[in-house]
Amino acid sequence: MLRWLRGFVLPEAACLSEEDRFRYQILFEDLDRNGDGVVDIVELKEGLNYWSSSFGMSSEQEILKAADTNADSKISFEEFAQYLEDHELKMKLAFHSLDKNGDGVIDASEVVDAVKALGIDISEAEAKNVIKSMDIDDTMTLDWDEWKYYFLLHPATNINQIIRFWKRSMMVDIGESLAIPDEFTAHEKRTGIWWKRLVAAGIASAVARTFTAPFDRLKIMMQVYSLQTRRMRLISVFRQLVKEGGFLSLWRGNGMNIFKIAPETAIKIGSYEQYKKWLSFDDGANIGILERFIAGSLAGATAQTCIYPMEVVKTRLTVGKTGEYSGVIDCCMKLFRKEGFQTFFKGYVPNMLGIVPYTSLDLAVYELLKNYWLEHFAQKSVNPGIMILLACSTLSHTCGQLASFPLHLLRTRMQVEAMVDKGKLPMTELIHEIYNKEGKKGFFRGFTPSILKVIPAIGIGCVAHETVKPLLGII
Fold first, then answer.
1. pTM of the predicted model, to two decimals?
2. CA angle 374, 379, 380 (to 5 degrees)
3. Measured between alpha carbons, how far is residue 197 from residues 86, 213, 360, 362 in Å?
4. How many Å apart are CA 453 and CA 214, to the nearest integer?
């Protein structure tokens, strides 16, 4: 990032403001590709991408918003110079807040302490990766010039935002189980930003689920009716659903799928924080990855237990024929009258059993891939970037689903057994029936649409999340 500017724009010695203006002019002219004396959003984005200086999906928008004082959607040189001057002051305050011992450099231990102060644990090796990405003279410490050089065009305004940039903060739920809920820092809890982040994640999750709802219905239909016929192919099921209920029928059950986002997320986040405290025997700040995994699994189990009747209703609405139910309330009343209260917890056992393999593989694969990238390819930045995170999330979700899919299939079959079977089958007998009629591949009916939805769901969720955050005042 801006490596060629190291000795020219950011010299070792302090400079007069006139000299600073000259250096800022050089940088500004390089951004101003068409030479019209102003930098617009396109030129700013191109410059950030060229210098590998984009720290997020909306970095250029954040810089433009901060620098464009006259609100004309363009940055003049005077606005640019003033922005850099103000930004440098903020970065100096951030540097001094990290440099606890006042020796003029930041080392790995100070990075660990700073991150821990926000309630996030990282290892010394991870802290060294952070230092290495910014260290130019290979001393494994950061002086002010190296810090200033790296964050010259970073849109962050304080140390909390810089530290948040160093950690994973994606909470978008694509309709499957989240491995471990995102953790809120003390600053986020104190300022109330945590609820805005929840709202942003909830909206993004709803958008992702809505766009990929047809894949969900295709998956469930293939899971439910695979025992009755082996001709359950993706295209044939798609045509059958459209013929039976029209194109909009592909979204049947999506309303309930969206409605359960809020209670599920709230319960999961709240119980996760409580389980962390119990497992760490303190305030939950000093907790390792194993304890986080256990807390995440228990939180997922708690949330699923509380909202499981919604899962059953969603599945019944999804499988139901046109006109069978007039809505959610009608579906609930009919299920209660015909099958009793116990029907709202059918498939509960395989659903709970599926949480551990999904959570463990999703978390392990994601962290393994992300850390591998940071160790072998992060020469310019500790931020993997949206495409790397998208790839890591896709592979981790795929591995998690691969491990837990047979259990999810059993859950779905048990939820709707009254609709397709004359009697009730215990889980063990259902396993034997699937194996005897379809073999091992019978446990993966519907896996294709489930995997096909992962990439668009994560991609759409990320874009929606980044779009909603500025509207809620989240940087």
1. 0.65
2. 110
3. 27, 24, 25, 22
4. 9
For residues 359 and 177, is the Cβ–Cβ distance under 8 A?
yes
Neighbours of 234 (CB within 10 A): 15
Report whether 260 contacts 314 (CB < 8 A): yes
Q: What angle is formed at CA 410 by the lines to CA 407 and CA 412, rounded to 5 degrees? A: 110
CB 259 within 8 A of CB 310: yes
Judged by DSSP in three states, 177 sits in coil
Angle between helix axes 41-50 and 59-67 (nearest 10 degrees) is 130
The number of beta carbons lying within 10 Å of the beta carbon of residue 138 is 7
CB neighbour list of residue 236: distance below 8 Å, 6 or more residues apart:
none
SS3 143: strand
Check: CB of residue 295 under 8 Å from CB of residue 260: no
Strand partners, 106: 142
Neighbours of 467 (CB within 10 A): 15
Structure tokens at 453: 């939805």
List, for residues 126-169, the tens digit of each pLDDT value. 777 777 777 777 788 888 888 877 777 776 666 666 665 555 44
- What one-character DSSP code corresponds to residue 154? -
How far CA 66 is from CA of 31, 169, 415, 462, 463, in Å, comes to: 17, 23, 52, 23, 21
Q: How far apart are CA 434 and CA 230, in angstroms?
A: 12
Q: What angle do CA 162, 167, 172 make, to 5 degrees?
A: 115
Please write the tens of the pLDDT for every residue from 78-132: 888 888 888 888 888 888 878 888 888 888 888 888 777 655 666 677 777 777 7
Inter-CA distances, 106 with 13, 152, 420, Å: 19, 17, 65
Residue keyed to tokens 């850099």: 84
Identify the residue whose tokens are 């082996």.
230
Long-range pairs for 260-264: beta carbons < 8 A, 24 or more residues apart: 260/307, 260/310, 260/311, 260/314, 261/173, 261/202, 261/205, 261/206, 261/209, 262/202, 263/306, 263/307, 263/310, 264/303, 264/304, 264/306, 264/307
